[in-house]
Specification:
six-stranded antiparallel sheet; five-stranded antiparallel sheet; 38 helices; about 50% helix; structural molecule activity
Length: about 950
């Protein structure tokens, strides 16, 4: 049978060393050759070889060596060789080793003594250890601390052996004496650890006797003290009152590691506000004092846990947590903002906003490379604060509007979306926001930001002056008309206009030309030779951003400009009494739209205008020429109503997510409730009194009850063998974040004793068996629980298979029972998650792995099919319900989920209903890793056909 080994070392046995060669090298006098030979022998032993013929050679030629490296390798060799026979008795030749070990324990060199004592910690054979005990005990009083600390560990390991208490009866008393006189901190720690593991009462007594001096002990000993306190209080929670004072005193220890462990221990033992506040304060101090980013991230995780369970206490610590923004690391800043955003209340919102505004101003310095990403995080945080607390929007909206022209497009888009939401939810800010937006509109350089800003101008410019200013701003940013010209060859262009030549192309027989008065004329093909090819007129230096974007072929923005002008003109008709002014403005707008269409259909741009943008601009022209009341109502009211509906759905979705996060616990009818007011308070500190109150509240609300859905547990039981097999086995599968636990129940259904019964497992996929289950002897008609741990390294579907092997007294051959396969589902690793549309699009563009699955289902309703896919994949639909309303025969939706490893899973469902009623389309999956894309695609292919 294969033996378990605590250390696996790879050794290439392609050309294994012959035992005779190793033997010759060991018998020689060359020390480097002996060292290499010992290493080869150890490697071969670790990889399954036996090499029994080397033992006597090593005893004769290696034991007497004085070289420290050889002595260390000798101890490694002695650790891994077989020391007992098949019946468990110590081999006679081991007596040869005992004398050498005794000599080493009395060796004048401290290193030899120390490594020998460490070797004894790994020996389990009492017959070998017993003759060495006097020498081990002598080393407890050695002058060198290295030997004393290893001697204490050796005593502890010997005492923990099955017969250790008989051969070392007074070991705890002896170690307690050593502990009282020892000065070396490491040796003192080992002594207290020995008492902790072997005689817990004695360790507790020592701790309580020296409780006033705990703060003066070294870091190593203090860590063991905390471990002892956790163990004792976990066993008996009623005694935690006497230990909390020790923990509070250690919170001010000079060691950061002790402070961290103290805070964690305090949180695990007490839920009193005073204790939680002390722990949170310690975490915040570590957050500022530690320079290691990994330490800061771990501390932030602990603060996040406190926020979830003790939000009321953490609210007071919000400004201390915000100080972590001083770190330049983006992950730390992101995690800090996530924690802070859930701790904001009306009391602290002003302080938080002031801090965030200062951080936004700092990002303008440009000293750090990732200032743009940090600014985007801050803008999103301020946006979230302003949505929750509208009264603070006025203090930040004008500051953020300065970033509409930011070179980082993502942060500029976030500002535009923020302004769009604030102007709707805060009507008092409408006038100031519109004024500021019109003043800064010329600074915007990104198409998406321009589109959002134009929509705001079209919807929220209500007064006469605002409408006129909006039209004037758009005209100024578009520049002079036309957008391209036909100039005569040799004629010098205006010095204020920059002409960009384009490649010569075939000119149609009739082409528009711009005359000196600005009108258009048609020239014949005969006179074409007198003109140069058409050129783009970039406009004067005063021309704005819209013109430059249009001349790059961005006709989607052109359609947005046309729609904005249409809305402004329709509103102008309502607020402007003079029809002449309205007609003049309408004429100018129509000229702009016609010029856009001519530019899009000309040959000066490499790509003509797209059909959607063309239809949109033409629709605007028709509306301005002939407008009815119904159309006016749609353009001036319906768009804004749809936006309000979208905001309300977004708010409703966030509310539902918060409700889902809140864990509601219920108390059972027969649960015990201790009434705090009826208890005796004599001798209890304020912290203990608070703790009692919190415990009572937790019991009353059922927080101490672990959620256990028995029905779901039963669904996770898998039958591994048949009912007619001599051995029946079933497994309960528990999937954790990084491992899978198989709790296998094995039942002997025969009348015979099964010997050497072993559960042999193997895996496929990114699954690895952590350790092989040991052998068991199973009595007739008895059962055994066998646990197997399987490590998971990625989100991928895997298979666990194997068999049960056993022997009986009647049959000498081993019997094998093949087990059913256990399929590990990807759904066990992913859970629904939420992200913004912008983040979804960004990830969709970045992720390189895509799996495209064709729709093949008997379901004939689009929404029913989408619901089936969401249920089958355990994903969250990001598309709003309002966007899925109606019966148009088409459906497109985005789904999102995250795995326990932090991987993102993106799914886009695009389907169309055919004439025959069947659904057609594709489901596209994108992810950063190949495993999740393939596994999720296989899952969808398997599940999409029906509702099962």
């Amino acid at each position: 049978m294969e033996k378990s080994c605590p250390l696996l070392i790879h050794f290439d046995k392609g050309t294994p060393a012959i035992a005779n060669e190793i033997k010759e090298a060991l018998e020689g006098s060359d020390v480097p050759a002996k060292i290499e030979a010992m290493k080869k022998a150890i490697m071969l032993l670790l990889n399954g070889e036996t090499l029994p013929q080397l033992f006597i050679t090593i005893v004769r030629y290696v034991l007497p060596s004085d070289d420290h490296t050889i002595q260390k390798l000798l101890l490694n060799y002695l650790e891994i060789i077989e020391k007992t026979d098949s019946k468990g008795r110590v081999l006679p030749e081991m007596i040869l080793i005992c004398q050498n070990l005794r000599n080493n324990l009395q060796h004048p060199n401290e290193y030899i003594r120390g490594v020998t004592l460490r070797f004894l910690c790994r020996l389990n054979e009492t017959e070998i250890i017993e003759p060495l005990i006097p020498s081990v005990l002598q080393n407890l009083e050695h002058r060198h601390p290295y030997i004393r600390r290893n001697a204490i560990l050796a005593v502890m390991s010997i005492y923990k052996l099955p017969q250790g208490e008989q051969i070392l009866v007074d070991a705890p008393e002896m170690i307690e004496k050593v502990l009282s006189t020892e000065q070396d901190q490491s040796a003192k720690r080992n002594a207290f650890l020995m008492l902790f593991n072997c005689d817990q009462d004695r360790a507790i007594n020592y701790l309580l006797t020296h409780v006033d001096r705990v703060a003066e002990w070294g870091e190593l000993l203090q860590m063991v003290v905390l471990e002892l306190i956790r163990k004792v209080c976990r066993t008996n929670r009623g005694e935690k009152g006497k230990y909390i004072k020790i923990i509070i005193s250690l919170l001010n220890a000079p060691s950061s590691a002790v402070n961290y462990e103290c805070a964690g221990t305090l949180v695990s033992l007490s839920s009193a506000p005073t204790a939680i506040r002390a722990a949170a304060n310690t975490y915040c101090q570590l957050l500022l004092s530690q320079s290691d980013n990994n330490v800061k991230l771990i501390v932030l995780d602990r603060l996040n846990e406190l926020k979830s369970s003790h939000r009321d206490v953490m609210v007071d610590m919000i400004m201390d947590v915000l100080r972590a923004l001083s770190s330049p690391n983006l992950d730390i800043r992101r995690k800090t903002l996530d924690i802070v955003l859930e701790l904001i209340t009306p009391r602290n919102i002003n302080e938080v906003i002031l801090m965030l505004k200062k951080e936004v101003v700092k990002t303008q310095s440009g000293e750090l490379e990732k200032n743009g990403e940090y600014r985007q995080m801050l803008i999103q945080a301020i946006h979230s604060c302003a949505v929750k607390f509208p009264e603070v929007a006025s203090t930040v909206v004008h500051l953020l509007m300065d970033f509409l022209g930011d070179s980082i497009v993502a942060s500029a888009v976030d500002v535009a979306v923020f302004v769009r939401e604030i102007i709707e939810t805060n009507p008092k800010l409408r006038v100031s926001i519109i004024t500021r937006l019109l003043d800064t509109f010329y600074q915007i350089r990104a198409t998406r930001v321009c589109s959002c800003a134009l929509w705001i101008i079209g919807e929220y410019c209500l007064s006469l002056s605002e409408v006129e200013s909006g039209i004037a701003t758009i005209k100024q940013c578009l520049g002079e008309l036309p957008f391209y010209s036909m100039s005569e060859e040799g004629e010098s262009t205006d010095s204020t206009k920059k002409v960009q030549p384009v490649n010569s192309m075939v000119v149609s027989s009739r082409r528009p030309a711009v005359l000196a008065d600005g009108t258009y004329a048609t020239q014949s093909a005969a006179s074409e030779t007198a003109f140069s090819p058409p050129t783009i007129v970039q406009g004067s230096l005063a021309s704005g951003n819209l013109r430059s974007l249009l001349l790059t072929g961005d006709f989607f923005l052109g359609a947005v400009v046309a729609c904005t002008l249409t809305k402004l003109l329709l509103r102008l008709e309502e607020v402007q009494p003079s029809k002449v002014e309205v007609n003049k403005a309408t004429t100018q707008a129509l000229s702009i739209m016609v010029s856009m269409l001519q530019l899009g259909q000309s040959s000066v741009l490499p790509h003509p205008i797209d059909n959607d943008s063309y239809d949109r601009v033409v629709l605007c022209i028709r509306l301005l020429c002939n407008t009815g009341d119904e159309i006016r109502k749609i353009w001036l009211q319906s768009c804004r109503q749809s936006f309000v509906k979208m905001l309300s759905e977004k708010q409703l979705q966030e509310t539902e997510e918060l409700k889902a996060k809140a864990l509601v616990a219920y108390a059972q009818p027969d649960d015990l409730i201790d009434f705090y007011h009826l208890k005796s308070r004599k001798g209890m500190s304020q912290l203990e009194l608070e703790d009692e109150v919190q415990d009572d509240l937790k019991r009353a609300t059922g927080e101490f009850i672990k959620d256990g859905d028995d029905a779901n547990k039963l669904n996770r039981i898998l039958q591994l063998t048949g009912f007619s097999d001599p051995v029946y086995a079933e497994a309960y599968v528990t999937v954790h974040h990084y491992d899978i636990v198989l709790d296998v129940t094995v039942i002997n259904r025969t009348k015979e004793t099964l010997q050497n019964l072993c559960l042999e497992l193997a895996t496929m996929g990114d699954l690895k068996l952590v350790e092989r289950p040991q052998n068991y002897t199973l009595a007739p008609e008895s059962s055994k629980q066998i646990k197997a741990n399987i490590k998971v390294s990625s989100t991928e579907t895997g298979v666990i298979f194997g068999n049960i092997v056993y022997e009986t007294s009647n049959v000498h051959e081993r019997t094998v029972v093949v087990l059913n396969d256990v399929h590990i589902d990807i759904m066990d690793y992913i859970s629904p998650a939420v992200c913004s549309d912008a983040a979804f699009r960004t990830m969709w563009a970045e992720f390189e792995w895509e799996n495209k699955v064709a729709v093949n289902t008997v379901i004939q309703n689009e929404k029913e099919f989408l619901g089936h896919i969401i249920k089958s994949t355990n994903m969250k639909c990001l598309t709003a319900p309002s966007a899925l309303d109606g019966e148009c025969g088409f459906l497109a939706a985005n789904l999102y989920a995250k795995s326990v490893f932090g991987e993102d899973a993106l799914v886009n469902v695009s389907i169309e209903k055919q004439v025959d009623g069947k659904l057609n389309g594709y489901i596209r999956i994108r992810s950063k890793t190949q495993g999740i894309a393939l596994s999720l695609g296989d899952k969808i292919t398997l599940k999409q056909k029906g509702s099962s």
